[in-house]
Amino acid sequence: MYSKILVGTDGSPTAGQAVRHAAELARTFGAELVVLHGAKVQTAAAGAHAGVPPDLEGLREEGAEILKAATDDAGADLKVRTVYLEGDPADAIVKQAKEDGADLIVVGNRGMRGARRVLGSVPNHVSHHAPCNVLIVHTT
Fold it and tell me: How many other C-beta atoms lie within 10 A of the C-beta of residue 2?
């Protein structure tokens, strides 16, 4: 039924639940699991740091750590590929699903809160723009 499952992660515990759920589905269907981290890149808009470019190297290092942790969570008995994209996380998920021909997108219903929040409206956006089925895992 599914041959390629894409799951988005922001490194939060709730996203980890979505990754584990996607991994179990990939095991069940013998599907490839694509784990994606979309890093929101923006310059500071106001205040003392206005116009300061983001620390891209730091974002990339953090993204690599997030993807490694998600791969570890998924388990060793799967075909797993990781993708790091800079930009809006929801757009990144939809774009990658189209490029990969994903059969299913898995996202958690909640993500980080506060300044590190990445997956806020992601499930809503993805569900309205996805090129395939979307599973929103209840993670709260």
Answer: 18
Strand 4-8 relative to strand 32-39, pairing: parallel
> Do residues 106 and 135 make contact, with C-beta atoms less than 8 angstroms apart?
yes
How distant is the alpha carbon of residue 109 from its chain centre? 12
Total-model pTM: 0.84
Domains of the chain with CATH codes: 4-43+54-137 (3.40.50.620)
80 is written with which tokens? 């797993």
The whole-angstrom separation of Cα 69 and Cα 19 is 10
Cβ of 65: how many Cβ atoms within 10 Å?
12
Q: What is the mean pLDDT of residues 58-77?
A: 92
What residues are paired with 134 via a beta bridge?
A: 105
| Closest to 94 (Cα-Cα) out of 134, 47, 59, 56 | 134
Residue 52 predicted with pLDDT over 80: no
CA dihedral of 96, 97, 102, 103, whole degrees rounded to 10: 160
